Amino acid sequence: MKFTEFNLNDSLLEAISYLNFDEATPVQEMAIPEIMKQNDLIACAQTGTGKTAAFILPILNKLSEESKGSSINTLIIVPTRELALQIEQQIQGFSYFVPVSSCPVYGGGDGNDFESERKALLGNAEIIVATPGKLISHLKMGYVKFDEIKHLILDEADKMLDMGFYEDIQKIISYIPKKRQTLMFSATMPPKIRTLASQILKNPKEISIELSKPAEGVLQASYLVFEKQKTALIKYLIKNKSEYDSILIFTSTKSKVFEIVRGLKNKDYSIEGISSDLEQKEREEVLSRFRSKRTRVLVATDVISRGIDIKDINLIINYDVPHDAEDYVHRVGRTARANTTGVALTLINEDDMLKFKHIESLIDREIIKIPVPPEIGESPVWNPKPVRKYTKRNYKGKGKGKRK
After folding, report:
1. Domain end marker among 190, 209, 228
2. Beta bridge partners of 44
3. 65, 159, 267, 368: most buried, per Cβ within 10 A?
4. Are 202 and 285 found together in one domain?
C-alpha cells in the first residue's frame, strides 16, 4: 500500500516523498487507518518494521489540519534517551513541510537542555518525546501543562516495564486527561503488557506482526567458544572482511564495553564503545561517527539495542548471550532493517548454552552452532543442560571425608 492511499495532508506527503518513502510497511498499513479513526491501539511488531512512522504520521496529519495552539497535544513516552532522540529526528523529518513543533525530554543533558525542556512543557511544543525519569523530575516541579493532551503514546512498552518504569508510567498518566487517544507499541506481548493495556486503553484495536522473531533478512549463526577465545575469534572474523564496514558488538554489562574495546583495538580499523557511563553529548558524538562510518566497530550495551536507527549495519556480534531472551530479537533487529540483509553472530560459552537454548525456543528456530577455527583452539561441546552447583544442602563430600 502506498502512502498516497492514506488520505494524508499534501504537505506531509511531500515530506514523505522527500525522505524517499513510498510503500508502507505492514504495521504502518494496519495501524495508520485505525489511528486516524481515533481508536485506541495496541500494536505488537518486531523492531525495524516501521513502528515509529506508524504513529507519527497520523498524529502529524491531524495536527496539520488544526490551528496551532499553545498547549501540548501529544506525549510520547519511551524507555531510553537514544530512542527519544531517534523519534524526535523522525518527527523533524516528517514535519519538514508541516508547522508542528516538538521537543525531546531526557536525562543526561546540561542546564540549557533543562530550560528548553521547561519551556516546551509549559506549552511551547505540540509534541513531547520523553523518558519517564526525566519527565517525572519536571512534573514534580509543578509547572508542566498536560491539561490539553489528546494523544498518549507508549513506545517500546515492554522495555519500559523491564526497566522498572511501571510506577512512573502510572504517575505520568495521572496528570493526563482521561479523555484521550492512547497508543501502545511493543515488540513483545508478555502478560504484564496485557495488564497495563487493560488499565490505560479503552476498547483498543489490536495489531500483531511477527511476534518476537528476527527479520527474514538476518542470517543467524553462533560459535561455541571458551570465554578467553572471544576476542581472538572476533579479530579472526572481521580480518580482511572489508564488506563488513559497519559492525555492532553487544555485551550485557557496561563494565565489559571498554574492556572489549581495548582487546579489539587494531591499526586496521576504528573502534569505539558506548554505554550509559558516557555523557549524553559523548554518546551522540560516538553514534554520529558510527552512523557516518568513520567508526567501523561499535561496542555497546543493550541500552541502545532498541534506541538507535542506523541503516546498513551489516554485522551484529553478541559478545555474550543476552540475559533476557527477548533482548536477542532487539539486538539482531539492528541489522537487516527495512528489507535489507545482514549477519548476526552469537558467541556462546559453556555457561550461556542453556540461555541460548531458551532463545531458540522463543524464536522457534534452531541456530547453527559453529566450532571455532582450529587456529583459535578447541571449542566446548554443545550441552545446554543446567549445571548442578554444590551447596551445603546437596554437597555429599569428595575424597576421603565428607563435609559436616
Report:
1. 209
2. 186, 208
3. 159
4. no
Q: What is the pLDDT of residue 334?
A: 67
Grid coordinates representing 216 are 527474514
pLDDT digits (tens, 9 = 90+) for 342-394: 889 999 999 999 989 988 887 778 999 999 999 999 999 999 876 544 444 44
Q: Is residue 70 part of a domain?
A: yes
| pLDDT of the residue at 400 | 43
- pLDDT at res. 369: 95
The amino acid at 383: N
pLDDT, position 60: 95
What pLDDT sits at residue 167?
Answer: 94
Whether the CB-CB separation of 82 and 41 falls below 8 Å is answered with: no
Q: Is residue 40 included in any domain, yes or no?
A: yes
In a domain, 383, yes or no: no
- At residue 355, the pLDDT reads 87
> From CA 274, how far away is CA 288, in angstroms rounded?
12
Distance CA 9, CA 60 (A): 9
**CB burial class (10 A; 0-12, 13-18, 19+) of residue 128?**
buried
Nine cell digits for residue 252? 550485557
Amino acid in the structure at residue 142: G
- Of 150, 178, 209, the residue that ends a domain is 209
Q: What is the chain's percent helix, strand, coil content, to nearest 5? A: 40, 15, 45
Comparing CA positions, the residue from 19, 5, 100, 80 lying closest to residue 53 is 19
How many angstroms from the chain centroid is the CA of residue 348? 23
Q: Quick one: three-class SS letters along 329-382?
A: HHHHCCCCHHHCCEEEEEEECHHHHHHHHHHHHHHCCCCCEEECCCCCCCCCCC
Q: Single out the residue of 341, 334, 345 nearest to residue 368, CA to CA.
A: 345
The residues of the chain scoring below 50 in pLDDT are 211, 338-339, 388-404
SS3 state of residue 402: coil
Which domain covers residue 315, as residue numbers? 218-371
C-alpha cell at 179: 479523555
What is the pLDDT at residue 48?
A: 63
308 and 341, same domain (yes or no): yes
Over residues 382-391, the pLDDT tens digits come to 998 765 444 4
- CATH number of the domain that 249 lies in? 3.40.50.300
Mark whether 179 and 280 lie in a shared domain.
Answer: no
